[in-house]
Amino acid sequence: MNCSKPCGFPPTDCPGPQSESAGKSDSCQGCPNQEACATAPKGPDPDLVAIAERMATVKHKILILSGKGGVGKSTFSAQLSFALASLDFQVGLLDIDICGPSIPKMLGLEGQDIHQSNLGWSPIYVESNLGVMSVGFMLPNPDEAVIWRGPRKNGLIKQFLKDVHWGELDFLVVDAPPGTSDEHISIVQFLQATGIDGAIIVTTPQQVSLIDVRKEVSFCKKVGVEVLGVVENMSGLSQPLTDFKFMKAGEHGEQVDVTKAVLDCMREKAPELLELVAFTEVFDSSAGGAAEMCQEMGVPFLGKVPLDPQLCKAAEEGRSCFEGQSCRVSAPVLRGMIEKLLKVKEWNQDELQHAENGRV
């Protein structure tokens, strides 16, 4: 992790915190971390050996990133994990969003506690092949704010990696907080020696989100993490016409629900309309959205996930969107993205066999 000047940009000749000249070279002058670097212990971090040993049983590690909060990153992480588990993979989901741990709710695990054995901390299991770890399991009160500085956050991430007994995993999905801050630098640094397969970046279509996603792509390129693809989430509100409520203005401007009358009219006059899915853009994508950005930056575009109220409901209820038919607008799109990723990456033959034979 490089030190940084007060302006926030790391000096190009920063010696790095592990260097013998850390905090002492000319380039360190004026850096707010100068004293910390000068007095910090030097040499390799012994915990990295313990992390490497733990991660030796994990075949693939995928980071889920976003430039901004509120774009559906954790929802995507949760549904990706559900999907991989339903394909009979052994899956771990690690939530390193220390200040906003929403994964326990999205997996239906609120109120669960972490247990410890002689092998280490045990993940909380949704199913026998889907384990979860989050700071959310450690809070005495779910409404309590986590007010931690960087070093303490980084210490917990390190502890999750070296002390959690994941066992044999096909995939470890890491749900990171938005942005490119301490947590991101730490997870890359801690996992670098064991190999990170890459990152999936989640965005919404409008420029105000894509501006920050460009920074996320830049971060990945700088730290040597492959961008597996970009997902454009909330790409237009899409749901069956029969799921809409129809309203009209009343005599005094109030909203009057006329849904039943409209649906009855459709059934009588045009029943074929009842099979339609309605779509409208929510965010401005006139600049080309994530697909255009991916082309400009030379990274893969995985596709668009519509803003599906049923997917939102599944996340709120902590369940997989692939169970049943309620998420019939979004589930097929997510399934296609995941199967495409498995095939394009050509992860080992056993896994490809799972992808071909299994059903989400």
Automatic annotation (TrEMBL):
It comes from Linum tenue. Its cofactor is [4Fe-4S] cluster. [4Fe-4S] cluster binds at residues 14, 28, 31, 37. Homodimer and homotetramer. Predominantly homodimeric. Pfam families: ParA. PANTHER family: CYTOSOLIC FE-S CLUSTER ASSEMBLY FACTOR NUBP2, NUCLEOTIDE-BINDING PROTEIN NBP35 YEAST -RELATED. Residues 18-29 have a biased composition (Polar residues). It is found in: Cytoplasm. This is Cytosolic Fe-S cluster assembly factor NBP35. PROSITE patterns: MRP.
